[in-house]
Write a structure and sequence with these properties.
CATH topology of the largest domain: Rna Polymerase Sigma Factor, Chain: A
CATH class of the largest domain: Mainly Alpha
Distance between the termini: 84 Å
Shape: rod-shaped
Radius of gyration: 38 Å
Largest sheet: none
Strand content: under 5%
Mean pLDDT: 81
Number of strands: 0
Number of domains: 2
Number of helices: 9
Order of helices and strands: HHHHHHHHH
Length: 193
């Protein structure tokens, strides 16, 4: 391959959109960039992408009026633009590393597969214990803890003062704990209630 020298006239014609200069530019630098990139990049598609992006950026720079300060070094300018495109590509590759399909997928500890079963069992136990309680205790505990009813609404429903509701809740919780009667589960229930 024979290397080309460039002058101010060539760069001006390229900036003005001269088709002969554009064809020469695309043909010449397509080959030069290929020789440079085939050593640095791993796939023909990447090489083609970098070549196209480099040629496009050079033309945009020339046609937007920024131009090239030293036309005799136009080849070095195109080479520098190509280096920048490759650096950007490598930076993106490092940011988004390829997924290795041979690596075992990590377990997702945020999903509790036994949770729904345990919740059903817990719900069944709660309902059994609530059935053993007096009606008033059962209704207060359901309203406050299961239905999460506003305390003002519970006071209205039972016709009691908010201070006295606290006493009723305390008593109902005590009766619930007594009905539970199982020391193994008592700590769990005490923290829940």
């Amino acid at each position: 391959m024979q290397f080309q020298t460039f002058d101010e006239e060539y760069v001006r014609r390229l900036a003005d959109g001269d088709s002969a200069a554009g064809d020469h530019f695309a043909s010449y630098f397509n080959n030069v960039l290929y020789l440079k990139l085939r050593v640095r990049l791993r796939s023909p598609e990447l090489i083609e992408d970098v070549k196209q992006e480099t040629l496009l950026r050079v033309l945009v720079i020339l046609r937007q009026g920024e131009g090239v300060r030293r036309p005799e070094r136009f080849g070095a300018f195109v080479n520098a633009v190509c280096n920048n495109v490759v650096r950007e590509l490598c930076r993106l590759d490092k940011r988004y590393e390829a997924f290795d399909e041979q690596v075992e997928e990590p377990a997702d500890h945020t999903i509790d597969m036994d949770g729904p079963l345990m919740n059903q069992d817990l719900q069944r136990q709660i309902n059994e214990i609530l059935r053993e309680l007096q009606e008033r205790d059962r209704k207060i505990l359901r309203a406050i803890f299961l239905e999460e009813t506003d305390k003002a609404e519970v006071c209205r429903r039972f016709g009691v003062d908010p201070r006295y509701l606290r006493v009723l809740i305390h008593r109902a919780k005590s009766h619930f704990r007594e009905a539970l009667g199982n020391d193994d589960n008592e700590q769990h229930w005490n923290s829940s209630l």
